[in-house]
Design brief:
Layout lengths: L4 E6 L6 H10 L4 E4 L3 H8 L10 H8 L4 E4 L3 H4 L1 E6 L14 H10 L8 E4 L7 H12 L4 E4 L9 H7 L2 E5 L2 H11 L6 E4 L1 H31 L4 H9 L19 H10 L6 H24 L6 E5 L14 H12 L2 E5 L11 H7 L2 E4 L16 E2 L21
Parallel strand pairs: 1-2, 1-4, 2-3, 4-5, 5-6, 7-8, 9-10, 9-11, 11-12
Antiparallel strand pairs: 6-7
Bound molecules: nicotinamide-adenine-dinucleotide.
The site of nicotinamide-adenine-dinucleotide has 25 residues, from loops.
């Protein structure tokens, strides 16, 4: 007889899918990861998490082969009760969402779907897409049900946040909503039920709100710098013992695989009239340009070797997707004599160690504020540190940046 699973996590080799699959397997569910990336599946099957995700690997090793399995065969979809879909949902070069990957995927798995399936969309989707997918699937497979349960974790802290955050559950069928609610209740205490459209917007609002927050800090940083002032002195003063200043983010590169994309998805869904979102994008994406402009006022970069420390999109991460450090590098390649890079967590044979980068550079930029750079000897060389990782600015020393998602 066929093997049966409770859950198939499609795209389960990815940053969102794998921690979720491991968490469900750890909660006693029979879980199969289905992914098209064979290299990633091999890595997972050898008990290794292919990216940095705190606390995930020890649990992966515990559940592997007992309650967690991995497969590149679509058959695993047919063998499961719930099908959780977590494949990527990018925006194109014109900042519009792309549906191609999702349609191709849905068409491809159709022969493996049946009327008892509950399909749970967990990818971040364009508003209204859950309903379109539900209609499409039900037309072809009467009885099948679709839910949308957005992922809201902070990448790198999924194992902790899957159980600490309330889970939004949405769908069109009360029985499916209840079943999916019970499923997620295995991971977390609080289940919040919304309609699919509400849930889709809740997810996009969450990331856009965060992106705009970072943009405010970045814009204020640029304003203070243009006045020739140390932004962090003003920042330290304004947040000190001031309750309304709580949650005021610090400046830094706001990037990564979600914030920019989700803000643009929200804008595309509102006739590109999400002016705050677009402004946030211009500010955040303009920060590398601004840093170079200000640096050039004091240093002639054209003859200099410039080092970038930290290429991932945020601190203590190995994820380089949409990292602004790469944009910084691209701009510096035009402006500087030579550019060299380093990262504590990103594997790239062209990168040097932090020490070698400092030694060979005339000036340095902190791209991603990995904590280790706090203890690097910069040999008295100038360091452009928008994050204030080194604590050289402001009224107080210290670094409390929570990072960006
Ligand atoms: N990364 C985050 O922190 C985060 C947080 C919340 C939501 N999301 C959303 O989750 C979704 C996935 O993001 P991610 O960061 O996990 O992406 P990812 O690229 O890390 O993972 C996607 C996985 O899907 C697999 N895949 C692609 N096409 C497939 C197919 N047709 N069949 C089977 N597997 C396929 C890929 O091989 C990959 O392993 C996106 O919609 C994203 O917006 C991401």
């Amino acid at each position: 007889m066929d093997r049966q699973f409770d859950i198939c996590v499609v795209g389960g080799g990815g940053h969102v899918g794998l921690p979720l699959a491991v968490s469900f397997a750890n909660a006693g569910q029979q879980v199969v990861i289905y992914d098209i990336n064979h290299a990633v599946l091999d890595t997972i099957q050898s008990g290794i998490v292919p990216f940095m995700e705190a606390g995930c690997e020890p649990i992966l090793r515990e559940v592997l082969g007992k309650t967690l399995f991995a497969s590149s065969l679509k058959e695993s979809i047919r063998q499961s009760r719930f099908v959780v879909v977590v494949i990527g949902t990018p925006v194109d070069e014109h900042l519009n969402p792309t549906f191609g990957q999702m349609w191709t995927f849905l068409n491809g798995i159709q022969p493996y779907l049946h009327q008892d399936h509950i399909v749970i969309l967990r990818s971040t989707v364009f508003p209204g897409l859950t309903e379109k997918i539900d209609t499409l699937l039900r037309r072809r497979i009467p009885g099948i049900r679709t839910c949308f349960c957005p992922e809201r974790i902070l990448e790198g802290r999924a194992m902790e946040e899957l159980s600490s955050l309330p889970q939004i559950v949405s769908g069109f069928d009360p029985d499916a909503i209840e079943k999916v609610g019970r499923l997620f209740a295995l991971l977390t205490k609080e289940i919040v039920v919304l309609s699919p459209l509400e849930a889709e917007l809740a997810k996009l609002f969450t990331n856009s709100w965060r992106y705009i927050h970072f943009a405010i800090a970045n814009q204020f940083y640029m304003i203070a710098e243009e006045f020739g002032l140390d932004f962090y002195r003003i920042y330290d003063a304004l947040i000190r013992d001031y309750p309304r200043g709580r949650g005021f983010p610090r400046p830094g590169f706001a990037a990564g695989p979600c914030l920019f994309k989700d803000t643009m998805q929200l804008s595309a869904s509102s006739e590109h009239r999400f002016f705050l979102g677009h402004s946030a994008m211009l500010v955040n994406e303009g920060l590398p340009d601004f840093l170079i402009k200000v640096t050039k006022r004091q240093h002639d970069l054209s003859e200099m070797t410039v080092g970038i420390l930290g290429m991932s999109f945020k601190a203590e991460s190995d994820d380089t997707r949409e990292s602004l450090s790469y944009k910084l590098r691209k701009l510096l390649v035009i402006e500087a004599g030579h550019v060299i890079c380093s990262d504590e967590h990103v594997r790239d044979p062209t990168f040097l160690s932090a020490e070698e980068t400092v030694l060979k550079s005339d000036i340095l930029f902190i791209g991603a504020p990995h904590i280790r750079y706090k203890t690097v000897d910069f040999m008295g060389k100038p360091v452009i540190d928008v994050w204030n990782l080194l604590g050289k600015h402001g009224l107080t020393l210290g670094f409390e940046n929570e990072g960006v998602k």
